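User: quick one, sequence for these tokens?
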């Protein structure tokens, strides 16, 4: 080791193994043979969004309309009923009378809001992670408002004359499912048992409308239920025909639509409703204002903005054409 020089023998240099080794002294830093892990990390630019339940109220009702504006507090819906009587004809008889009776049905609006706010530094820090934070917060505000709007279409607003498709007090109480042997729910019934319940709903519509001829097998109507209950429509008879096929054959203009709100703590809820009668809607989802964006407020190094909407819930004009069943 070191320098092998015979002429230096006896000087002690050749036998001193610590000399000429300062090219590899003891380390001052921590022992390491790599780089920071984040330098080899790939950051995917696409954003994977968390999903929320579908908003289906307006689709099920089939009509969403604007009533008034954001300063409107109440609405009056006018119901007209024709009245009259006849009498025997006589040239000099003045009996018999035709008239009209009116009712004014009142509803109250509900206005609500949400606020987005963000700072300059917050935006730039989020930008390092390839996140457009201002845009994402705006999307969240729209989703928040629309989720609540959808909820009011189903359930209205408590303590106001503002009702939803599932709890309007003018609706007839839901009927009970038919019993097939010991089975009550669709999960336990066969295809014919499920069909019997839908037929019972159709019969209930006939009863509620006093068999006036407005409800017929080919009348356009909507059968609404939860996605959980919908799977029962795939049940098949011994002749290899499922419930959905039987419905198309017997009710050619019936449309099946689903929403998570039909799964309740009291059991699966199903509604059968006509879409319209003689050109008049049976029900409408109604709002006063959709996505009113208020002024952007600029602070010293931050921004905030309010957004608001207003709702009437679902306005049911003709509740006799909506039948319901609970516990399928």
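Assistant:
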């Amino acid at each position: 080791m070191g320098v092998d020089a015979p002429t230096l023998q006896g000087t002690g240099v050749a036998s001193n193994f610590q000399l000429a080794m300062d090219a590899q002294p003891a380390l001052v830093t921590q022992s390491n043979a790599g780089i920071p892990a984040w330098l080899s990390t790939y950051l995917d630019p696409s954003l994977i969004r968390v999903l929320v339940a579908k908003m289906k109220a307006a689709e099920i009702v089939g009509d969403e309309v604007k009533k008034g504006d954001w300063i409107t507090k109440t609405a009056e819906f006018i119901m007209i009923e024709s009245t009259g009587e006849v009498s025997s004809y006589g040239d000099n008889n003045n009996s018999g009378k035709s008239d009209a009776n009116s009712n004014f049905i009142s509803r109250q609006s509900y206005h609500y809001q949400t606020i987005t706010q963000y700072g300059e530094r917050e935006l730039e820090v989020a930008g390092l992670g390839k996140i457009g934070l201002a845009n994402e917060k705006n999307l969240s505000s729209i989703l928040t408002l629309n989720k609540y709007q959808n909820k009011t279409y189903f359930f209205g607003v408590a303590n106001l004359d503002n009702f939803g498709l599932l709890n309007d007090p003018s609706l007839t109480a839901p009927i009970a499912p038919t019993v097939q042997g010991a089975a009550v729910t669709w999960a336990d019934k066969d295809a014919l048992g499920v069909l019997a319940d839908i037929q019972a709903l159709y019969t209930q519509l006939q009863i509620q409308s006093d068999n006036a001829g407005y409800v017929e097998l080919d009348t356009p109507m909507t059968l609404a239920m939860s996605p959980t209950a919908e799977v029962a429509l795939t049940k098949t008879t011994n002749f290899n025909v499922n419930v959905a096929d039987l419905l198309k054959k017997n009710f050619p203009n019936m449309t099946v639509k689903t929403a998570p709100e039909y799964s309740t703590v009291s059991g699966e809820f199903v509604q059968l409703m006509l879409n319209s009668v003689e050109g008049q809607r049976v029900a409408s989802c109604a709002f006063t204002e959709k996505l009113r964006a208020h002024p952007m407020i600029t602070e010293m190094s931050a921004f905030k903005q309010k957004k608001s909407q207003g709702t009437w819930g679902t306005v049911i004009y003709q509740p006799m054409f909506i039948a319901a069943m609970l516990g399928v």
